[in-house]
TrEMBL record:
It catalyses: tRNA(Glu) + L-glutamate + ATP = L-glutamyl-tRNA(Glu) + AMP + diphosphate. GO terms for biological process: glutamyl-tRNA aminoacylation. A motif ('HIGH' region) lies at residues 18-28. InterPro entries: aa-tRNA-synth_I_cd-bd, aa-tRNA-synth_I_codon-bd_sub2, aa-tRNA-synth_I_CS, aa_tRNA-synth_I_cd-bd_sf, Glu-tRNA-ligase_bac/mito, Glu/Gln-tRNA-synth, Glu/Gln-tRNA-synth_Ib_cat-dom, GluQ/Sye. SUPFAM superfamilies: An anticodon-binding domain of class I aminoacyl-tRNA synthetases (SSF48163), Nucleotidylyl transferase (SSF52374). The gene is gltX. Residues 335-471 form the Aminoacyl-tRNA synthetase class I anticodon-binding domain. Belongs to the class-I aminoacyl-tRNA synthetase family. Glutamate--tRNA ligase type 1 subfamily. ATP binds at K255. This is Glutamate--tRNA ligase. It comes from Pontixanthobacter gangjinensis.
Amino acid sequence: MASDSGAISGTVVTRFAPSPTGFLHIGGARTALFNWLFARHYGGKALLRIEDTDHKRSSQEAIDAILDGLDWLGLDYDEEPVFQSKRADRHAEVANMLLEHGHAYRCYATTEDLEAMRAAQREAKQPLRYDGRWRDRDPSEAPEGVPFTVRIKTPTEGGTAIKDLVQGKVSVSNAEIDDYIILRADGTPTYMLAAVVDDHDMGCTHIIRGDDHLNNAFRQLPIYRAMDAIEGGWSDPTYAHIPLIHGSDGAKLSKRHGALGVEAYRDEMGILPEALFNYLLRLGWGHGDKEEITRDEAISLFTLDGVGKSPSRFDIKKLENLNGHYLREADDARLAALIAPKLDGKVDIGLLTQAMPVLKTRAKNIGDLVAGAAFLTAKRPLALTEKAASLLTDEARAILSRVSGQLKSENDWTTEALEATTKQLSEELELGLGKLAQPMRAALTGTTTSPGIFDVLVLLGREESLARIDAQAIS
């Protein structure tokens, strides 16, 4: 990896520029995070641009989901979002300046012309690229009434090199870069032009994005350099192209690996924002052996020096384990408020908060908390799972009757007192404590898994606990 040490001068300005053709997926979220952290670390500005020029594929729903996902992750921006679709006039203005000063030209090649050109290139086993047929022709040769595109004049000799803060020095032969379209025949700008103009006008100093955009850097630099020659002040940005995320098997990340929208991690998988923040940070970036990193620590520690060149592997189990850590660290009232709407029946938020310390000890996601808390709102007669019902044999129901009698004599309804009373009964019956706890759990919760049985008794309270046990007991 290259180092960004000593490479920072002036105010750092980064941008995250998603296309709203889908939700904020995990790769985009990590790119947003790295841009945000880099700006925050150097005391700069983090900006957001919505690249919504593809009207057919862009949607307000996707825009809302992207903004919601960024907000949920805690990524705030220093200015209002820039919507690229509102800047088409400015993009066309720059295209016309390039045209006027000889850095771009009108291309009158028809669709049929270009198809024939590509067919010939395939036949000759040549790279498919525009052959510059209108680059040096006089516009007077243009057929009358034929629409034209505007193409940038890229260098044809030598090479271009960039010093990438992640990839190091990367060079490309200029012969590999064709004269691409910057303004379509209908007058609308292409991505290449719009991105450069917007990055310049937003004052972006550092372009941090996926390494699938590395080739775009070499295609975009001719616009910067041509505009700098025309009016000055269009200096090259500093690039940092970060490796993509792969699945745990090393293949390109897809839905089968967990490549979902951020909202799915929140709503369906029950991941906390601080856990996803931490996990995304550690995908391709590291600081020694440190795994659990707070937001403030991340801002303090983050530089591009810690980003590796190799793709990182997404591991859903590691994310869940990290999420379990943050669940245990989370405020109990906050967790209670998160799971309360997901529980069936009316729930006492105070009771739910009281239950959190025992519910979250083994939970890995919000769903685990919901499942663990379900017994608190269950109504009698309890619906039993198949496993729970199998535990309630006639022998077990007779044991429950003895348990009920013992507990009814208990006046100190605390975990310590209830445990002592139940242990005393197990000794009298010459049974292991588990022989009592298993049918008790089935009767109290309707399941075979729950928090500690004495915690369950305390949380349900004396009256409800005894009523549930008695409903399954036989004399």
